[in-house]
Amino acid sequence: MSFAAIRSSLAPGASLRTALVLVLTSMGAAGLLTDVSLSRIPSYAPGEVPAQDVVAPIPYRYLDDGATRWAQEEAVRAVPPIFRYETDQVQRREIQLSAAFVTARGRLQEAADARGRVPLETQQAILHDLEETLQIQLDVQDRAILLADGFSRETEALTTELIAVGGRYPIVESRDPLPQDGPILLLSGAGGMTEERRLEDLSRLRTVEETGQAIGLYVMERLSAVPEVQRVKVAAALARRALQADCRYDAEEHQRRQEAARLSVAPVEVDVPRGKRIVRVGDPVTPSQAAELSALQANTSGSDGGWMFLTHLAFSGILITSLSHFARSTIRKFAPRPQDLEAMALALLLTIPAAGTLDLGELQLTVEQLAVKKKK
Fold this sequence. Notes:
By secondary structure, this protein is α/β, with parallel strands linked by helices. It has 14 helices and 10 strands. Strands 6-5-3-8 form a 4-stranded mixed sheet. It has a two-stranded antiparallel sheet with strand order 1-10. Strand 5 (184-190) and strand 6 (193-199) form a beta hairpin. The longest helix is centred in the last third of the chain and has 27 residues, at 304-330. It is rod-shaped and about 145 Å long.
């Protein structure tokens, strides 16, 4: 196409020029509308009082960091404390006790002379080895009772019975690591296998002190009729000292599981529909509203602004076409001449920036106030 032909096509009144003017007008109007919509999004910090309403001009989605942190904290709090439970303590202690008593009785028999007497030094050595084997220490009175008893099978049986009574429940050092209300997780293992069990009722745990009290209560209720009072006394002392804490808080495993629970929480996504009122004039901005505003600004600076431009472009084209048809059918002196269409397009472009200077938030508030007065 020659230069003359192009110049002729763009001459006043030419149809190509009119079409080009309408297209450029629509694009200009769409650009101005998009700029007005996006540039009017203010930024407020939590606690600030907005001077105008802010309504979402587009639908958008954002990651709510505050809600994500809250969900992570809830997941961490939901992890129960971890305790390692040695389920075989009672069995091990019973076996150790029986072996120690059998050894002590055999050594007494070997060391006894013809009259059945055993040197005091030998008795003390046997008793010392028994304490070393069981990793306990008796007081002077209980040591004397046990030596006088000769490590009898009856004392051995009574002690074994009381160890089973005291070790009926898991034993903890103290109740300090236990939660006020909530379960704990017991980890117990044997043969390389680990079993997990939630314990809801924390009364089914005992401290070392409570274990001794349980043994004493059992002696009072069940063994008060036994004639050998001293034998029962030393058996209770042996059982109390033999049973130690077999359920210990595992802080490292607890922290590891808490961290795994925190990382398992997916980021919280929030969908904001178009037209949602994000903040209201006069109401202090909350942290969640400030996050929504920040996300809106980030979204409108991206690809969503392009979709808004296309929407406004279609709207501008329909508006210009509708105005032209309306003027043609209702205004007698209006003629669909190219100059008139171009003048109307120019008027539209000048109107949009002027409208952009209005405080639409205050205008909306005024309309709402008038509606309320009308209802009254």
